[in-house]
Q: What sequence folds into this?
């Protein structure tokens, strides 16, 4: 596959990812206002800034294949906006849990799916995964809050389950509407195995910060 | 002056600039929602991301001089927040005019004041000035809108005058409260000359996009 053409599954994947990054920027930038101090606020703003830089990389890739990024994103506007509208954090810890859990699952998914892409798109998708340093910031904030008040673990565990529920619900919608995207994975058995691995990695991420799956 | 100490005027300047960048990020990120399409929205998000990267540079410089960035920023929270609250854009063109006119004046001010700083702070302040490419994006959007509908020039000219009025009002408040910052400029005559140059550059910026001063 030449660098200048994109199979439709890959085009869909990059379009979805481009819009996911744009919205993640928007939401994290807004969530930063929930920070308890200016230092923490700035860190979440910086996490947001990484998302928009990644958005640019993907939009540039689409443009290099003569695809209008806005057109490639458009089939995914509604599902991604619905996810964020249903999971608007009301405080700093909910915002960080959303960044840690939501981005964690998304990263695992994109890391898996990257294996099914040709270059340069495999490398591009792997490069836009989230920075471990920011993951560790979110994880450490959650751990400290739970250490200070163990009751917080219950509330955040429920919140995390809601995040996953909303994400799965929108993912199912996207999968139903975008056969080419699903076809990237190969057959249904491969899809099942992927789903099992995502669930396992998610359970480990929850346990790592003291949340109950 | 060693790299590890900061005179109080310079500390104030960097604290003000650090918070200005943090708030500019926040406001531009929110204003991006006013964009008429996803491409333009992404460009304003990217302009915002530059602000938070600059915030980090300044916060790191303060920290290197053993100054808590949050403490250095704290005297300026109210004046800068007041400016943004009084100048909340209601549409895309107001948002871009704010970025073009407001950042333009701020850049001119910081470029002038940088001349009165020692290294490494002179270079730091000059490096966080806004990128011409983004200025040109904002200017070109404003020009196109006026070309399509000349009546827009009146509305945006009034808006720009309001931006300048609010900025001057908050600048006067900051100057009254921070003698060390004002002292960076030298004597009152130097301050007067600076003010004249800022007004002149602002008038040229207005004319360059078809706005009336």
A:
């Amino acid at each position: 596959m030449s660098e200048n053409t994109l199979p439709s599954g890959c085009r869909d994947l990059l379009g979805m990812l481009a819009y996911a990054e744009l919205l993640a920027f928007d939401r994290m930038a807004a969530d930063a206002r929930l920070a308890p101090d200016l230092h923490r606020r700035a860190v979440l703003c910086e996490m947001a800034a990484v998302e928009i830089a990644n958005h640019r990389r993907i939009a540039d890739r689409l443009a290099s294949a003569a695809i209008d990024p806005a057109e490639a994103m458009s089939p995914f506007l509604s599902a991604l906006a619905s996810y964020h509208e249903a999971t608007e954090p009301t405080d700093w810890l909910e915002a960080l849990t959303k960044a840690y859990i939501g981005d964690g699952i998304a990263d695992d998914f994109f890391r898996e799916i990257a294996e099914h892409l040709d270059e340069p798109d495999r490398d591009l998708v792997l490069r836009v995964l989230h920075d471990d340093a920011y993951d560790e910031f979110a994880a450490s904030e959650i751990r400290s809050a739970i250490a200070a008040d163990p009751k917080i673990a219950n509330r955040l565990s429920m919140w995390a389950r809601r995040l996953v529920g909303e994400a799965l619900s929108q993912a199912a919608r996207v999968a139903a509407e975008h056969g080419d995207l699903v076809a990237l994975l190969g057959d249904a058995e491969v899809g099942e195995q992927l789903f099992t691995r995502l669930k396992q990695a998610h359970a480990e991420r929850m346990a790592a910060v003291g949340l109950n799956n």
